[in-house]
């Protein structure tokens, strides 16, 4: 880290907690960073001449006479084309053994885009996964998380989505990533020959948890550079935002803030929204799309982290193991892409919205039939047919291992309708049934 | 508050957007001040004074601000600027015109004029020399898009005045004098088209505020038919994320019978605001044939904008609504989501280390919410004209659980409750309004009942109650069927269940993204309800319970095609006759006929 000339060095801490140190100092700006005993810290409170600093790596071993130097600036990242293909830690320092990146210095956590300078998202992102493309189509400029249990293959699905998405740049923000997953991403990207369009900021489980608070801002600063300065389509991957939120709660609890639901800070909504809202489509063509992961504990989506996330993002993708077919599927009930109506039936075939809805409705009927069966009731002929349909639908379309184009997905769906149902049971607009039923 | 000398101060403490200042003179609660930081001036509001410390909430990021920074107190509260040219604007929560800001990113400390000062407006006088006037009296009018925008005596002017002179019909900018009035002491006041008003105080330019009694058509069937809202009424839409609050609000703001629509995007997604200002300039207002944007103003404090301005945004929106109501207009105000506003209050209250109430919300949350809702309403103006603000807010309950402070406190004051059900949303039964749990208190008002009888139909209310009854019974028999099994109940149970499904699919469900189905006129709603109830009143012959569902599915399917067709179009009537023959085939001969 750079040092500046004529910096004043302080050497008298008055307070030390697990996450913060306090000292007397003057001429300090709010949010400014400092080095405390060589560790990166940030000003979180100014009261008279008392300055409280949050020490990202924790305060273990910091003595009261530790050296403190203020940097006179907020956390920054140097941006240039040189970021491509590189791996960094939460501070933006290289961890791949390569040289420092030269480039223009930008403050992280920059202001928001003026809403009137945005463009309405309108470009479909095809992933080949029908649970996404058919039922929950992604649009560039969207922000959407996977809601998944920790044992589900969300990182694999996300890597697939990223590679198929045809983005100009993919920026990975790893927070509390296990070393295995970190190596997994690295090898997948390398094998796909895509490394030069990928930038990674990684905080692994081996790094101090509070450091990961910097990761999303680093990632999004890089993303804005490529989307604004180069009009590129940038796909941002953030995994795992639950661990990011946990770090927020660690800090706020140590600073004695009154916690709200699930011991999360009362500002959780704003803290998360500030990041997710960086997703944007610019009129000049650049865009930032955010695909994130929010791991659930015990599938509970009413927990404050997934709950607040759901209120911020433009839908969510649920992964679930379908025991009937023995595969992980994108659950059509709880999954939702809010922006899909901007593209389906417009950039995709006209029958797309109706086919999507009909299939999900029939899948819901199957779920009801299953409940009946479990409660020991007889099934009707219709019930039986919905169950057969559901299995085929799950296997051929919902499973995360499919890779199809959208027309094929629609044709498969029509095929399943024809095989299991009468037209009235499917209930699709006449003009489409006329066109596609017999096809 | 007169002051001889401007109060100034210096920053003594900073925690996020809470700043503590030592002031050198008098300050007022809610007074606006500016913190100087390099060449920026950051706007802030006084929220508490304790001894020598003045606490500010800053409407901007405080990054880089230092102890000792200078603060200037402005001696006014947070105000909006009122005058012609507010419609079709995109404002932030503090009424800055977003289109006037340079660059892609919002710049801290940049404040823009809400009005256009160069534009000339065609002024027509309404008052004449010698007229006695008070605050809110109409002096003249200008054409603003499709509405007649009244130029009024500023609301701040207390007491009685006499018009000394009034400008001739002609073109004027908002800052030119259009009238001179004289007060009791003989002092003259020159008036322009512009005035200011502090957002936290209600504009009381009316003489009476009766209970709302007129139906406000929204085009949304599950509202108009089952739980109607009134001109000047209040309602709220609570629902877990993704259950359809915003889509429902947007649908209402596109279709409702209002003269002016104010949309306050309060701590929600920027893309949703973009949707409004991308689509509204393209969409026609069915009543005027003009574009929807012409009657719409957006107040956007999206979730990435400064939290402190979130609270301001709903008050800014309400004050603008009150301004237009004073012109004798029907204003529709939408706030999405009032929970974000409550959360902003909570963040601040926590930083102030106030004693928290339930779920760490401030203790006075209930009072804040009810004060706000009470600003809506139907009013009689001094000139006997009427105006209204219909207010609908969304609520985003944590975890989707309605037993939380914002929902509970809103329920106490809002008269219509449109609860969105997760189950209905999951099974894509949109709009996911739970027709059984939801209510409109207005249906119980005799004056509303009278209005419905006169304007919709003599038997309308009975039909509505009947439809609700069928929905309720359908739910009950479904529970029975679930316990006893399909063949464990008499076939009539299946018939009853499917009759309620019929109402659900044909009346309640409505595709907000279909050009035709999105909006349903009252006439069409009346026709469809009576048609569906006729089916519900009929007896059909069935071979078994599977036969029941097959039959009703077919019926529903035809009705849905009707919903997708223009009212009374060829397709509509063709479907209808198809339906008729389907029904006749099954109809049990009625008792009187079989007796013959
Ligand atoms: N009437 C409707 N017709 C068709 N689809 C709908 C309807 N209402 C809602 N939806 C679907 O549900 C999605 C979510 O709706 P909406 O954005 O209104 O939810 P919300 O309750 O505002 O959620 P949040 O609290 O997260 O803002 C929409 O994107 C759309 O796909
Ligand atoms: Mg919403």
CATH superfamily of the largest domain in chain B: P-loop containing nucleotide triphosphate hydrolases
Mean pLDDT across every amino acid position of chain B:
94
Give the oligomeric state of the chains in this entry, treating copies of one chain as homo and distinct chains as hetero.
heterodimer
Helix run count of chain B: 15
Given helix and strand content, the structural type of chain A is alpha/beta
Amino- and carboxy-terminal Cα gap of chain B: 88 Å
- Derived from helix and strand composition plus strand pairing, the structural class of chain B reads alpha+beta
CATH topology of the largest domain in chain A: Rossmann fold
Separation, N- and C-terminal Cα atoms of chain A: 65 Å
What does the model show?
The complex is a heterodimer of chains A (439) and B (596). Chain A is α/β, with parallel strands linked by helices and 439 residues long. Chain A folds into three domains: 9-70, Elongation Factor Tu (Ef-tu), domain 3, CATH 2.40.30; 82-107 and 140-313, Rossmann fold (3-Layer(aba) Sandwich); 352-436, no CATH class. Chain A has twelve helices and 21 strands. Chain A has helices at residues 130-133, 154-164, 179-191, 215-229, 241-254, 268-276, 304-312, 352-374, 381-398, 406-420, 423-426, 430-436, and strands spanning 9-10, 13-16, 20-24, 33-36, 39-47, 50-55, 68-70, 76-79, 87-88, 104-107, 124-125, 138-139, 143-148, 169-177, 198-204, 233-239, 280-281, 287-295, 315-322, 327-330, 336-337. In chain A, strands 9, 13, 14, 15, 16, 17, 18, 19, 20 and 21 form a ten-stranded mixed beta sheet that branches. In chain A, helix 2 (154-164) runs parallel beside helix 3 (179-191), helix 8 crosses helix 9 and helix 8 (352-374) crosses helix 10. The model of chain A has no long low-confidence stretch (mean pLDDT 92). With 596 residues, chain B is of the alpha+beta class. Chain B has four domains: 8-77, Thrombin, subunit H (Beta Barrel), CATH 2.40.10.170; 121-193, Beta Barrel (OB fold (Dihydrolipoamide Acetyltransferase, E2P)); 221-451, P-loop containing nucleotide triphosphate hydrolases (Rossmann fold), CATH 3.40.50; 460-586, Bovine Mitochondrial F1-ATPase, ATP Synthase Beta Chain, Chain D, domain3 (Orthogonal Bundle), CATH 1.10.1140.10. Chain B is 32% helix and 23% strand. In chain B, strand 1 and strand 2 form a beta hairpin. Chain B is globular. At the A-B interface, strand 5, helix 6, helix 7 and helix 8 of A face strand 1, helix 3, helix 5 and helix 13 of B. Strand 5 (39-47) of chain A pairs antiparallel with strand 1 of chain B, so a sheet runs across the interface. Magnesium ion (MG) binds at residues 245-246, 268, 336 of chain B.
